[in-house]
Amino acid sequence: MVNRERIIQEAAELFRMYGIRSVTMDTIAGHLGMSKRTIYEVFSDKDELLIGVLNEMTVRQKELVKKVLAESENAIVAVFKLLEFNRDHFQDTSPAFQTDLKKYHIEVLMKRADKCEMPDYRTNQEVIESGIKQKLFRKDIDADLVNRCLYMIFMSVMNQELFPFDQFTRREVLKAGVLNYLRGISTPEGLELINKLEKKF
Fold first, then answer.
1. What is the fold, at CATH topology level, of the domain defined by 3-198?
2. Single pTM value for the model
3. pLDDT digits over 46-99, tens only?
């Protein structure tokens, strides 16, 4: 594995676990067993490294959505699989990651053409569109708008001010927010499937 890939992977894991601000270039170099100078030969500064991390996260998310859609019998099953994945992912991700990104690295957000929406909300629109074609989601909904709303629900899981972790589990927030929203956009067939799958969630 080339240095660039190794550095991005290690930085992504450390940022996810501890937040961005508390992880220094020295920390990353120490975990990789390489000099900080080697990192600076690949990335000019921490912001450039962060952009690399966010780009990699977006690529992985797109790959995950395509894989889940391909392996699922329908869009609602795919949504539940993605819920399970995101529940576990959020459980292991420090809330400081999103907080630090928006508070201390706003320049990075502005540099990226997609404004660094992480996860990239546009990727999941394909799931909504598939559900409409399968007559599991209502045909009168706006797939783009619905997808953006679901994205905001996902992001709210990490908001400790809205949902303090000592009062609500992330599983409860996902279930109350996403599943209830899905019910509102579903056809009778979709609603029946959601009610069946919810028991396993």
1. Tetracycline Repressor; domain 2 (1.10.357)
2. 0.73
3. 989 998 998 888 888 888 888 998 999 999 999 998 888 776 666 677 777 777
Q: Break the chain into its structural domains and give their ranges.
A: 3-198
Q: At residue 118, what are phi and psi to the nearest 5 degrees? A: -130, 120
Q: Among 47, 8, 11, 45, which residue's Cα sits nearest to residue 28?
A: 11
d(Cα 69, Cα 73) in Å, to the nearest integer? 8
pLDDT number for residue 118: 46
Structure tokens at 32: 């990789």
Tell me which residue of 169, 48, 14, 17 sits closest to 26, measured CA to CA.
14
Give Cα 124 distance to the centre of its chain.
10
The pair of three-digit structure tokens given for residue 38, joined into one six-digit string? 């080697």
pLDDT greater than 90 at residue 108: no
Distances (CA, A) of 75 to 102, 165, 200: 32, 30, 17
